[in-house]
Amino acid sequence: MLTPIPLLIIPLAIYNIVVFLTPGVEWNAVILPVAMVSGAAWPITVGDAFLALSLFVLLFEVLKATRISSRSIVDHILSILVFVLALVEFLLVPQAATSVFALLVGIMLLDVITGFSVSVRVAQRDVALAPPTG
């Protein structure tokens, strides 16, 4: 069951747990080098894996935005609050001043914009206005 709690709070919590419990974490550390058909090596870093997880969570957030109910309004408001908190953390907390966190904040902004635009689109589809007759 999809709850009105913003799912992007999960990557935010994971990021904060990692950076505060393991100071000096290297987001550029390679965790898996993948050999490509071209012969080149594609190094997948910790930051890449974290952002891939965040994008996967964003998929479920977008799916939640297609519901029309009073809970979806609460979900949108909470998503905005999570985005604002993450933005403030990015600006004020030294551990959050990384490209990985900046991209996470961008994903949260995308969630807010997508959530509202999908909800408006679904509402327009559900409400059919007939042209005036006369």
TrEMBL record:
Transmembrane segment boundaries: 7-25, 31-60, 72-93, 99-120
Lineage: Bacteria, Pseudomonadati, Pseudomonadota, Alphaproteobacteria, Hyphomicrobiales
Provenance organism: Aquabacter spiritensis
Superkingdom of the organism of origin: Bacteria
Protein name, entry field: Uncharacterized protein
UniProt KW Transmembrane keyword: yes
Keywords for this protein: Membrane, Transmembrane, Transmembrane helix
